[in-house]
Automatic annotation (TrEMBL):
Keywords: GTP-binding, Ligase, Manganese, Metal-binding, Nucleotide-binding
Cofactors that this protein relies on: Mn(2+)
InterPro entries for the chain: RtcB, RtcB-like_sf
EC number: 6.5.1.-
Positions bound to GMP: 201-205, 325-326, 374-377, 381, 400-403, 476
Gene name of the record: rtcB
Annotated source species: Methanoregula boonei (strain DSM 21154 / JCM 14090 / 6A8)
UniProt name for this protein: tRNA-splicing ligase RtcB
Binding site for Mn(2+) 2: H233, H325
Gene3D superfamilies: tRNA-splicing ligase RtcB (3.90.1860.10)
Taxonomic superkingdom: Archaea
């Protein structure tokens, strides 16, 4: 660990005030000895930089999948006072509401006699790759509804069931969307991309439940041993990227107008209550809602392929949950014994609300929310449960995935897509992608081990292990 970092627990570390000039609070991060060896020094610098922002409350937080990002580190969490704090696109990222959802099926692995055929069928049903366009014709008026209603728009349009909405963080939509703050350019990018997977680390993956750690929570979540499941990981596509790009320009100017001193211009921000801050928040919420609608449309397309190939009922494939990874939201938390409304930025981090949280449906109230943590093609994914400890220590937050240890360009130099696909096929995992490069830069070797990451959050009590899922087939964006 770099000089100056203080160990405060088995897997918990502190960046003291003064590590970089201007820190208002300490940084805290969770990392095992094994993961510490994979840590990028730049990520800690970024975590310390976040601690200099006005109005930050208690700590700048890092999860065990911490790695370098734009402004905030990925795996970073920062909560800000609504009165004195700021809002920063760097604390959300370009792929606004990149997130993941999981649905179960009544199938077991032996029921899938032709796995390659199923993967190809899903690949045809879900447009995939850079600039992929939807087969659904979404008029301009519908786009506006997507940005306001989120997943509810999709369900009302026929892409799913009302139960799906109860299994989405925020019910699949933020109430504060302001479509006036979304540019025409962003809207034009969003119209053809509803229901598309995109590229990069986005994926659709067939999985098998291979281990249950918590029988009671698994039963409440509807997860059973041996069950075939489907996980979907994607975000707000070009619309969200354009919203971030548009508002970054405005907030870079606002940073100077409000005399906010920054150690890194990628932390461009404005007071949360300022016109510039409010405009970004409203546009970001609109993009987040688009992302929830997008994942709902993909869920519907995948379900239809299972119905067509296996003759099962559409409603026999319930959604376990949908969580956002890149978002800023106003939430109520306890700080120094008092309830306070805070603007919580989660950048590559997952909400982990524990038992009794107001956002949970009644049948999950005693358990906590499902937390979905994806692996990396060749490694397991996990279902965990949100905890009261996370509410107390991390503003109800936990990790979001494995966390990269190698850039995309480095990955492509080290491995070819064919080598990666062949190695996975030898283990019984089918990979389908638009091209080999899309496979190479997302190889399992470029990520931290998912098992170690989730063990750290489990041991720290930030979310607790419920089930492990192993990959059977992957569609990479």
């Amino acid at each position: 660990m770099p000089d100056g970092i203080i160990r405060v627990g088995t897997d918990e570390w502190e960046i003291p005030v003064g590590y970089v000039p201007g820190m208002r609070v300490p940084g805290r991060f969770f990392l095992s000895e094994a993961l510490a060896g994979l840590l990028e020094p730049g990520a800690l610098q970024q975590l310390a930089n976040v601690a200099t922002l006005p109005g930050i409350v208690r700590y700048s937080l890092g999860m065990p999948d911490l790695h370098w990002g734009y402004g905030f580190p990925i795996g970073g969490v920062g909560a800000f006072s609504l009165d004195e704090g700021v809002i920063s696109p760097g604390g959300v990222g370009f792929d606004i509401n990149c997130g993941v959802r999981l649905f179960t099926t009544p199938l077991v692995r032996a029921d899938i006699k032709k796995p390659r055929e199923l993967i190809e069928s899903l690949y045809r049903a879900v447009p995939t790759g850079v600039g992929a366009k939807s087969t659904a014709k979404i008029p301009k008026e519908a786009l506006l509804s997507m940005m306001v209603k989120g997943a509810r728009w999709a369900v009302e349009t026929g892409y799913g069931t009302t139960r799906d909405l109860t299994r989405c963080e925020e019910g699949g939509a933020m109430n504060d969307a302001d479509i006036r703050a979304v540019s025409e350019k962003a809207r034009a990018r969003g119209i053809p991309q509803g229901g598309t997977l995109g590229s990069g680390n986005h994926f659709l993956e067939l999985q098998e439940v291979s281990e249950i750690y918590d029988e009671k929570a698994a039963a409440a979540f509807g997860v059973k041993m041996g069950q075939v499941c489907c996980m979907i990981h994607c975000g707000s596509r070009g619309l969200g990227h354009q919203v971030c790009t548009d508002h970054l320009k405005v907030l870079e100017t606002a940073t100077k107008r409000y005399n906010i001193a920054l150690p890194d211009r990628q932390l461009a921000c404005a007071p949360a209550g300022s016109p510039e801050g409010q405009a970004y928040y409203g546009a970001m919420a609109a993009a987040a809602n688009y992302a929830w609608a997008n994942r709902q449309m993909i869920l519907h397309a995948a379900r239809k392929e299972f119905v067509r190939m296996f003759g099962m009922d559409y409603e026999s494939m319930p959604l376990v949950y949908d969580v956002a990874h890149n978002v800023a939201k106003i939430e109520e938390h306890t700080v120094e014994g008092r309830r306070a409304r805070l603007l919580v930025h989660r950048k590559g981090a997952t909400r982990s609300f524990g038992p009794g949280a107001p956002d949970l449906p009644g049948d999950l109230a005693a358990i906590g929310q499902p937390v979905i943590i994806p692996g990396s093609m060749g490694t397991s994914s996990y279902v965990l449960a949100g905890t009261a400890t996370a509410m107390e220590r991390t503003f109800g937050s936990t990790c979001h995935g494995s966390g990269r240890i190698m850039s995309r360009s480095q990955a492509k130099k080290k491995l070819t897509g064919k080598e990666v696909a062949d190695a996975l096929l030898a283990r019984g995992i089918i990979v389908r992608a638009p091209n080999e490069a899309a496979i190479a830069d997302e190889a399992p070797d470029v990520y931290k081990p998912s098992s170690e990451v989730v063990q750290v959050v489990h041991d720290a009590g930030l979310s607790t292990l419920v089930a492990r899922l192993t990959p059977l087939g992957v569609i990479k964006g």
